[in-house]
Amino acid sequence: MIAVLRLGHRISRDKRITTHVALVARSFGADAIFIPTKDVKLEQTIRSTCQRFGGNFDIITGVNAKKILKQWNGTIIHLTMYGEAVEKVIDIIDKTKDVLLIVGAEKVPRYIYEMAEYNVSIGNQPHSEVAALAIFLDRFTEGSWQKKQFNGALRIIPNNQGKHVVSEENERA
Ligand code: SAM
């Protein structure tokens, strides 16, 4: 199980970026996202994507971050520009254990750095939680996220010239 804990979500300012964090998590192989701020609209948006495009991805908002961290039975990894280089730690992380990946928005509280078993950087320049999460998941899954089957009601057929989307209903007709 791979879960993401997205900290610092402000409903008005971070709507789009938190949606992208959740969509990247789902698409790149995570099973769930936890968000401390209660945001029903965000839950609806992500659940609607899951209904149309498939998969068993879960979104839970309004959680207690400290409680999740304390109860997590697996590895806790915090993505931060201040951490150790991903290429140095990726092979020593136990991939048989459940993983909780933490990404922030603005300043992340000190206790996160202390509770994380690994503080991991994707390069040491400031960039984005979306980019950091995507690159970490790609490395962690060794690219296997690309082969994941979502079995959704909508399926995209890769096409060089335009959109080709197959829907369950059309296939049945
Ligand atoms: N000062 C922050 C930090 O600790 O990385 C940068 C803030 S950035 C706007 C928001 C989030 O993006 C961070 O909390 C972190 O999870 C992620 N992030 C940004 N740059 C990163 C990097 N180079 N490596 C890993 N994560 C990064």
Describe the SSE topology.
Blueprint: E1 2-6, H1 11-27, E2 32-35, H2 40-53, E3 58-61, H3 65-71, E4 75-85, H4 86-89, E5 99-103, H5 110-115, E6 118-121, H6 129-140, E7 154-156, E8 165-167, H7 168-172
Parallel strand pairs: 1-2, 1-5, 2-3, 4-5, 4-6
Antiparallel strand pairs: 7-8
S-adenosylmethionine binds near residues 108, 121 and 122.
Note down, in words, how this protein is organized.
With 173 residues, the chain is α/β, with parallel strands linked by helices. The chain has a single domain, classed as 3-Layer(aba) Sandwich (Alpha/beta knot). The protein contains seven helices and eight strands; from the N terminus they run βαβαβαβαβαβαββα. Strand 2, helix 2 and strand 3 form a beta-alpha-beta unit. It is globular. The site of S-adenosylmethionine (SAM) has 17 residues, from strand 4 and helix 6.
Descriptive labels:
single chain; 173 residues; alpha/beta; Alpha/beta knot; six-stranded parallel beta sheet; two-stranded antiparallel ribbon; 7 helices; binds S-adenosylmethionine
